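Sequence, please.
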C-alpha cells in the first residue's frame, strides 16, 4: 500500500498501546463511542448468541469483534485451530469447546497485556486445550502446515501489511486447511483525513481495505474458493461521513 516501514512500525506501536490500555482497563469496544452500551448487548450485536455467552468466561468478552467466526467455521472435534489476534480470548474459548479435549486452539496476539489477560482467564477456568502465544500475525510463531483451521475477528484490518498476514496464514495451514475470518472492509474509498488518523486505524476503520481489494489480497496469497459467507453494514456509532461505507465481512477460503 506504499506505506513505508517507519509508518508501519508507528501504526503497530499505536495499535499495541491502544489494546494494551484496553486490556488493562477492562474498557472495551473497537469504536470508542460504543462503550456506552453494556458488553453483553455489544456481544449480541456483534453476532454471538446468548448460549455462546453462557459458554465462555465473561472476562474474555470485551466487545472487540465484528462477527462470530467460530459459528461459521464448522469446527470438528480434534481439530487444531489458530486465532489471529486473539485479544481476551473469546473465540479461542468458544472454539475450545467445539474441538474438545483431543483438539487444540492457539491464540496469537502482539499485545502482551492481552496475552496475559487471556492466559489468566484460561488458567482460572481450567482450559487445558488452549494456548496463547505472544507474536505478530505477520510473523506467526508456528510451524509450516501445522493447523487445520484459522479464524480471526476484527484484527487483520489493523495490520499495515495484510498480504504478509495472509501469506503467513497460508504457510501455517495444513493442506486442505481452511480460513474463516471476520473483518472490516470498506465500500469504496474512505476520506483522506480518516485514512491518515492513527485513532481511526486503531478503531478498526482507517486500515480497512476496500472489499474487492481485501478478497484479491487473499486470492493473491494462494487461497482458493475465496468467498464472502456473510456480511452486514457496520454503522455502530459511525460519523455521518462514514455511514454506509463500512462493512463487516465473514470470508471463507481454502488451502489446496
Ligand atoms: C479489535 S481487537 C479483537 C480481539 C479479538 N479477536 C476479539 O474478537 O475480541 C484486535 C486485537 O488484535 C491484536 N493485534 C492487532 N494487530 C496485530 C498484529 N499485527 N499482530 C498480532 N496481534 C495484533 C491486538 O493486540 C488486539 O488484541
Amino acid at each position: 500500500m506504499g506505506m513505508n516501514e517507519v509508518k508501519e512500525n508507528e501504526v503497530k506501536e499505536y495499535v499495541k498501546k491502544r489494546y494494551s490500555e484496553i486490556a488493562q482497563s477492562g474498557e472495551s469496544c473497537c469504536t470508542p463511542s460504543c462503550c456506552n452500551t453494556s458488553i453483553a448487548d455489544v456481544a449480541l450485536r456483534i453476532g454471538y448468541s446468548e448460549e455462546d455467552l453462557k459458554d465462555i468466561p465473561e472476562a474474555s468478552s470485551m466487545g472487540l469483534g465484528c462477527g462470530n467466526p467460530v459459528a461459521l467455521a464448522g469446527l470438528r472435534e480434534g481439530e487444531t485451530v489458530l486465532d489471529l489476534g486473539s485479544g481476551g480470548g473469546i473465540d479461542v474459548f468458544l472454539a475450545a469447546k467445539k474441538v474438545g479435549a483431543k483438539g487444540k486452539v492457539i491464540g496469537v496476539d502482539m499485545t502482551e497485556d492481552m496475552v496475559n489477560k487471556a492466559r489468566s482467564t484460561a488458567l482460572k477456568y481450567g482450559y487445558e486445550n488452549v494456548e496463547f502465544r505472544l507474536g505478530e500475525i505477520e510473523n506467526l510463531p508456528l510451524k509450516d502446515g501445522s493447523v487445520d483451521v484459522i479464524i480471526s475477528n476484527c484484527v487483520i484490518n489493523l495490520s499495515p501489511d495484510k498480504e504478509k498476514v495472509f501469506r503467513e496464514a497460508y504457510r501455517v495451514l495444513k493442506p486442505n486447511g481452511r480460513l474463516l475470518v471476520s473483518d472490516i472492509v470498506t465500500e469504496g474509498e474512505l476520506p483522506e483525513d480518516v485514512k491518515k488518523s492513527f485513532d481511526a486505524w486503531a478503531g478498526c476503520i482507517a486500515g480497512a481495505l476496500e472489499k474487492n481489494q481485501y478478497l484479491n489480497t487473499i486470492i493473491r496469497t494462494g487461497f482458493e474458493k475465496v468467498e464472502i459467507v456473510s456480511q452486514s453494514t457496520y454503522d455502530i456509532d459511525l460519523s455521518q461521513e462514514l455511514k454506509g461505507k463500512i462493512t463487516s465481512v465473514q470470508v471463507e477460503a481454502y488451502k489446496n
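The chain has ten helices and seven strands.
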